[in-house]
Amino acid sequence: MIRRRDLLVGGSAATAAYLAGSFLPLVAQNAPNFGAPSVVQVGFRRQKLGDIEIIALNDGVLRRPLAAEFVRNAPLATVQELLRSQNMPVEYIDIPFTAFLVVAGGRRILMDTGFADNGPATTGRLLANLQAAGLRAEDIDTVLISHYHGDHINGLRNRAGQLVFPKARILVPSMEHGWWMDDARMAAAPDAMKGAFQAVRRVFGGLGADVLSTFEAGAELAPGVRSMAAYGHTPGHTLFTVHSGNEKFAYVADITNVPQLFARNPDWAVQFDMDADAARESRRKVFDMVVRDNMVTGGYHFPFPAFGKVEKLGAGFDFKPVA
Ligand SMILES: [Zn+2]
């Protein structure tokens, strides 16, 4: 098998736009053929974990035409067959975006951020959903970032340039931050990738050490909240686990894109995985862990409410959302 470490991440302009958070090409493709995806109406869900609470906060959804390059290493017909078998549409794919908030011991820790007002019309719902759950942006004291793709970081700073969570310290994986903030790497990157580097600078540029700090993978970031390296999707892609009493939660970020495809087939590579081989190794390791430890699992692109359990299914896994 060819090892793919190319920086083009699939290479298409649409992919680069997705990563950079500039969505116009995708939105233009969306609208005429397939209509707008439906946004969940009640976009927050509380989940008890021991004596703490975790709240899933939906930021919206994006509809993409299902093209052959979406799964790099499986024929489109095979991908469509798997969707059909789950009563899902085969012409397009709806990708939801859901961040998670840990409410514990007076702390309010948000994991990833959505788009704020930087994305298409069917995104940017996180703040409204936070309010619906009874909280305000000012109540967030910590933001943890899993990786630097636009759909995860753009919500830190609105279009006007203001920090969306004004009282929050922002904690980012050292490996991820170093990779994207390397100006020489940006200069050497193909043009299609430059927007992604610029988006990272738009969000993190000018933040002082009082706001932004890096952590090493494995570090405990708050009582019971620990980071875990899961490299591959991006060079520093990082997960977060939360323990309370005997109960465990794993926020697995983009260890898979939609689980209906990539949990069922953990060896399939979504076009956004920057190092597909490392990503599949991390995916199997993390899924083995959440099954073995019976962890409540939340994923950024999982179907809302995005909380559930992962079970073994054939040679892969199945994500079962909570009722
Ligand atoms: Zn993502």
Topology:
Elements: H1 13-20, H2 24-34, E1 44-49, E2 52-65, H3 76-85, E3 92-104, E4 107-111, H4 126-132, E5 142-144, H5 150-153, E6 169-173, H6 174-180, H7 183-188, H8 191-204, E7 212-215, E8 220-222, E9 225-229, E10 238-244, E11 247-251, H9 259-262, H10 276-292, E12 296-298, E13 307-313, E14 316-321
Parallel strand pairs: 4-5, 5-6, 6-7, 11-12
Antiparallel strand pairs: 1-2, 2-3, 3-4, 8-9, 9-10, 10-11, 12-13, 13-14
Helix pairs in contact: 1-8
This protein binds zinc ion (ZN).
Q: How is this structure best described in words?
A:
The protein is an alpha/beta fold and 323 residues long. It has a single domain (13-321), classed as Metallo-beta-lactamase, Chain A (4-Layer Sandwich). It contains ten helices and 14 strands. It has a seven-stranded mixed sheet. Strands 8-9-10-11-12-13-14 form a seven-stranded mixed sheet. A hairpin with a 2-residue loop joins strand 3 and strand 4 (107-111). The longest helix is centred in the C-terminal third of the chain and has 17 residues, at 276-292. It is globular and about 50 Å long. 49% of the residues are buried. Residues 149, 151-152, 254, 300-301 line the site of zinc ion.
